[in-house]
Amino acid sequence: MFNKDFIFGASTASYQIEGSIDKDGKTKSIWDTYTSVKCNILDNSDGTMVCDSYIKYKDDVKILKELGVKAYRFSIAWTRVIDENNNPNQLGLDYYINLCKELIKNDIKPFITLYHWDMPQWLEDKGGFLNDDISDYFEHYADVVTKALGEYATDYITINEPQVIFTLGHVYCVHAPATKFTDKEMLQAIHNLLKCHGKAVKVIRKNVKNSTVGFAPCSRPAVPTDKNNELLVKKCYDKYFECKREIEFPNRVAIYSDPVFLGDYPKEYYEEFKGDIPNITKEDLELISQPVDYIYQNYYSGNYYSLEENNNLSMEDFCFGYPEGNIDWLQVVPETLYYGPKFLYERYKKPIIISENGFCNNDVISLDGKVHDPERTDYIQRYLLELERISKEIEVKGYFVWSLFDNFEWNAGLRKRFGLVYIDYRNGNRIKKDSFFEYQKIIKNGGI
Ligand code: PNW
Predict the structure, then answer these.
(1) Which atom of ligand 1 lies nearest, measured to the CA of 301?
(2) What is the pTM of this model?
(3) Ligand 1 near 157 CB (within 6 A)
(4) Cα–Cα distance between 8 and 397 in angstroms, integer?
(5) Please, what are the domains in the chain?
(6) Is the minimum distance from the CB of 300 to ligand 1 under 6 angstroms?
(7) Strand pairing partners for 429?
(8) Closest ligand 1 atom to the C-alpha of 249?
(9) Which tens digit of pLDDT belongs to each residue from 58-71?
(10) Is 329 in the pocket of ligand 1 (CB under 6 A)?
(11) Which residues, other chains included, contact 349 with Cβ-Cβ below 8 Å and sequence gap of 6+?
């Protein structure tokens, strides 16, 4: 069991669920551009309709209410609330105000992500994260959002998964905007992104009473196969925070989180990336390390490690009879939710919130009209058991399942389903899967 103020929640993101991509003055984002190119998306789908949440938000809240969550994490589309002249768009803001009001009416706390990957195209055209002024644009955006929503929402996440933004968007080029960075550009972009975070934190503190703030990287912890082997556990910790050029994805934990929580890049960064490092001032580092409230982290998977005879780590490529996720990177490693939080807490010493965790399944509507997804239930139960275990040792504040709905899974399109609620894309029907009712039970019981 978790303690009784533990926050059970569910998570989504704007482009993945809203649809209505050109309503009420919304401008194009890099994902509107990217999806319009044939073959960029596995099934050539896009965000035109998806879950239709821009229209059906009241229905969304009803579903959340039935689920029993105390909190809903969603993201704001920058392109809805700021126009191409960098001015606020009230119609777009109204959507999020109405959503927040509806949530509050139903005793559900909004947790707002400011940036979940949908950069305005007009800003990308000015260089995106490589633009010297990007953090000023982001500060302005955060200012507009928090002035409009500050009285309804107190909890903010500045940026979702910076590692995915850069590695998939600018190294492998399989996500928008798919422009290749050199290492030097990458480090500059990372630094600019961290400044975006810092300036947003400042603005949120200024505009929102009793605010909480954080940012939400993803990571894939090194998980020891033998919890009693201290040397192995120590080596897994070191592996998790390693700062090397060749580690692109999805780790690079320290490079993003050390500046935010510890006030500087790791020592190895200055060695490893010599020659490619941007100009980093003391003021920058102060800005980036504004105090935050939580360590948010998106966790799906980890890697098991054991020790070889010479005491080197060796990755164990096995599964213990767990179901396979229907997407190539999703191996089921439940102890991810034990060792991940443990290691983060040891290093950064702040309360932890799991901002995403969930399972991709090849769901089907059965002849009985229902969606039976025992694998997803199994996944959630096993992961939550590990989280319960670590929550006896460190402060764990909450857990957001990814995702409330099946939605637009980026370059994998609509084929890859992560929802507790099935979306029938032919007619927009929403069907609660078995795992919806299982998660509902878990919430009611306060744990597994
Ligand atoms: C996250 N990995 O992306 C994103 O925040 C969501 O928008 C997305 O829908 C969800 O997870 C499911 O993919 C990730 O390779 C992408 O470990 C890749 C990884 C992790 C998270």
Answers:
(1) 17
(2) 0.98
(3) no
(4) 9
(5) 7-445 (3.20.20.80)
(6) yes
(7) 424
(8) 15
(9) 999 999 999 999 99
(10) yes
(11) none
